[in-house]
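Many introductory courses stop at the sequence. We go one step further.
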Amino acid sequence: MLDASLLPAVTTANGTYFHLADTVLPAEKIKVTNISGLTLTVTRGDESTTPVSHGQGATYGLVITAGDFAKFGQGQALATSQGLHPANPSATSSVSLVMMGLGATLAFTPASTGIVLVSMSGTAQIATGVQTITLGGRYGTGTAPVNGAAASGSRFGASADQSLKPAAVASGVAWALTDVLSLVAGTAYWFDIALATGNASDAASLQTIGCSLVELLA
């Protein structure tokens, strides 16, 4: 070995390594696990290759083996995604925001970066009169709130809850919420909608809800 400065820094202590192969006799893969000065600690015939005789002054080059490719990505789970369509929740006559109880279905656990794109949409409808409906996205951890529970969790989709008013009793009004959240990988989250009607005599309800949760790579 004439110059070790051109090689990657590896040590037995931290478990790093790389592979070399003779440029003339490349069939044998040589695993280098430590460099000390001009001395290399190696494993001959790595990955079930057959050791061969190398002549004095042989030239070696860095190679990437099948085992190296298998190691790529280990230690970081792949990003995950889900498309969810919960059943229509029970309507509410509450003039204060209450949860719709969607969290048991709209559940998501990020696996890698924790950076999650959330897109949720549907229609909101009033029962017997044209009233203002208040609606907002919520998410959290732990036990998901049930339908009718007081509003809880963190808001997503907007800095404030939306105020919607259907044009007529029979027609719903479309709504959509989109956000990018910084969550904790490996932690389970629920997603839900907080809803209120403008008049306790006119129940508000949600229909045709769709939710897309996509973890983004950094």
